[in-house]
Amino acid sequence: MFELKSDREIEIMREAGRIVAEVLDLMEQHIAVGVTTAELDAVAEKHIRSRGAEPAFKGYRMGGKAFPASICASIDDVVVHGIPSGRKLVEGEIISIDVGSVYNGYYGDSARTYAVGTIDPTRKKLMDVTIKALDAGIAQARVGNHLGDISAAVQQTVEQNGFSVVRDMVGHGIGRRMHEDPQVHNFGTPGTGPVLKKGLVLAIEPMVNAGSYKIQFKPDGWTTVTADGLPSAHYEHTVAITDDGPYVLTQA
Questions:
Q1: Which of 58, 130, 145, 163 has the maximal Cβ count within 10 Å?
Q2: Cα–Cα distance, 119 to 33 (Å, whole number)
Q3: pLDDT at 140 (0 to 100)
Q4: CA–CA separation, 103 vs 85, rounded Å?
Q5: Cα distance between residue 122 and residue 111, in whole Å
Q6: 33 pLDDT band (50/70/90 cuts)?
Q7: pLDDT, tens digit, for every residue of 197-242?
């Protein structure tokens, strides 16, 4: 059984999502050649706290290790969970920023990928296709559809453009906890899986690789990279399923 949210709970999550969207807008303003990912993290944490929320990622534990920062900053071949540091951004890279907030006990979670200066056509296409895949998945987040409809829409959009979806990382339900059931895969078959119901809230998050879908995990317990060293892009929205269709909570 999945935890369905009331209209009131969804509106609280909308505020958590709005705060996350504001942070990602701020990242757009601050990302530049020579800026460190630690500096971006400081900007994000300051804004989240100024809005009366808490950084959802800071101290979050996975496999016993607490994440040390407020954002995940994943550069080029880092798929997700890059740890902010003194590493400076370099012209031509792409960086994915994943951020979460906790507001009045509810979570918001979203991610975007950004260009650092001028990027090559492959990276630009990778970003564009990942956005399209996210939009395609969100369009299927409707009462009466199946979870597999979301997954299949993401996969089809990605693969018909010559890229691959990461198979070992997933989107997820979200609410009073960061990760709730169900898992939202980025590959699947239309018409399969649980039927989507009003009040289900999902974090839909295509992670798309320029090359192989295979990934590797670094010894720090968090950083996940492409196995072939090619770049990866990541976009995510928190989406509520309503009688009126998908309700994107993580936008300004």
A1: 130
A2: 12
A3: 98
A4: 26
A5: 20
A6: very high
A7: 999 999 999 999 999 999 999 999 999 999 999 999 999 999 999 9
Please enumerate, as own/partner, the contacts of 214-221 that have beta carbons within 8 Å and a separation of 24 or more: 215/79, 215/166, 215/168, 215/169, 220/65, 220/83, 221/62, 221/63, 221/64, 221/65
Token pair 């504001």: residue: 22
Q: Give this prediction's pTM.
A: 0.97
The DSSP letter of residue 5 is P
Q: Say if residues 63 and 179 touch (Cβ distance below 8 Å).
A: no
Q: Are 166 and 232 in contact (CB under 8 A)?
A: yes
Q: How far apart are CA 22 and CA 235, in angstroms?
A: 15
Q: How far apart are the two ends of the chain, measured CA to CA in Å?
A: 31
72-97 tens-digit pLDDT: 999 999 999 999 999 999 999 999 99
DSSP assignments along 123-167, one per residue: HHHHHHHHHHHHHHHHHT--TT-BHHHHHHHHHHHHHTTT-EE-S
Both structure tokens of 198: 């009003």
- How far is it, in rounded angstroms, from Cα 199 to Cα 192? 20
Side chain identity at 107, as an amino acid letter? Y
The four Cα atoms 82, 83, 84, 85 give a dihedral, to 10 degrees, of -120
**Cα distances (Å, whole numbers) of residue 119 to 113, 116, 130:** 12, 7, 16
Regarding beta strands 215-217 and 71-75, do their DSSP bridges make them parallel or antiparallel, or are they unpaired?
A: unpaired
What pairs with residue 96 in β-bridges? 74, 113
**What percent of the chain shows pLDDT beyond 70?**
100
pLDDT score at 97: 98
Record the tokens describing residue 141, joined without a space: 């987040």
